[in-house]
Amino acid sequence: VEFLYCDLASMKSIRQFVQQFRAKNCPLHVLVNNAGVMLVPERKTEDGFEEHFGLNYLGHFLLTNLLLGTLKKSGTHSHNARIITVSSATHYVGKLHLNDLQSRCSYSPHGAYAQSKLALVLFTYHLQHLLTANGSHVTANVVDPGVVNTELYKHVFWVVKVVKWMTAWLVFKTPEEGASTTIYAAVSPEMEGAGGCYLYNEERTKSADITYDEELQRRLWTESCKMVGISDESSRA
């Protein structure tokens, strides 16, 4: 195991990390996009993005795109490279505001968090479409880990914290249990060659209806490319 520093809230840090990783000339068979914040007060990343959208979504969007070349070289016909992105059931109630992705008009921690998780599902589906169109030996899937007992809840109201403390043993998964579906997506032979799936409890399930809107997927992708400063490969695909 080797640690390389990467701050997903910083576009500069992400680019530096990718440069460091590429210099090692290593193959890349599995990329898990798992970093995140939840229900934080209104604040911005160093690049000026609303923190939920900037860290939870745009950070992973840029990281994945910068590593795609390595992933494509690493995958083979019999062993595809795999991209796993961790979303949340909150995406079901999320709304994507393409004209206000930074939640400037009216900020809600819950709304901003749900939007970032919805964006991750849309991103994954469009990414799989592009990978398939290019004949790449890479698959992209999205995971719902369930309700997991982690420090992610440190910004919720104190009443919720008390309820969480009282009921965690009953309704919350342990971090190990929460990671099981991500690990399944990363290494299970059953997922070999399967992409564009939404997984919960190690099973394929249906995500929100809006996530299958291909026009919305494309528009979000194009806007995301502009925001992080990369070329839009989907327009050529």
From TrEMBL:
Alphabetical keyword list: Lipid droplet, NAD, NADP, Oxidoreductase, Secreted
Entry EC no(s): 1.1.1.441
Enzyme class label: oxidoreductase
Gene Ontology CC annotation, any one: lipid droplet
GO molecular function terms noted in the UniProt entry: oxidoreductase activity
Catalyzed reactions per annotation: a di-trans,poly-cis-polyprenol + NADP(+) = a di-trans,poly-cis-polyprenal + NADPH + H(+); a di-trans,poly-cis-dolichol + NADP(+) = a di-trans,poly-cis-dolichal + NADPH + H(+); a di-trans,poly-cis-polyprenol + NAD(+) = a di-trans,poly-cis-polyprenal + NADH + H(+); a di-trans,poly-cis-dolichol + NAD(+) = a di-trans,poly-cis-dolichal + NADH + H(+)
Alphabetized Pfam families for the sequence: adh_short
Annotated metabolic or biological route of this protein: Protein modification; protein glycosylation
Record InterPro entries: NAD(P)-bd_dom_sf (IPR036291), Sc_DH/Rdtase_CS (IPR020904), SDR_fam (IPR002347)
SUPFAM superfamilies xrefs: NAD(P)-binding Rossmann-fold domains
Localization (cell): Lipid droplet; Secreted
Role: Oxidoreductase that plays a key role in early steps of protein N-linked glycosylation by mediating two non-consecutive steps in dolichol biosynthesis. Acts both as a NAD(+)-dependent dehydrogenase and as a NADPH-dependent reductase during the conversion of polyprenol into dolichol. First catalyzes the NAD(+)-dependent dehydrogenation of polyprenol into polyprenal; polyprenal is then reduced into dolichal by SRD5A3. It then catalyzes the NADPH-dependent reduction of dolichal into dolichol. May also acts as a positive regulator of starvation-induced autophagy.
Assigned protein family: Belongs to the short-chain dehydrogenases/reductases (SDR) family.
Listed name of the protein: Polyprenol dehydrogenase
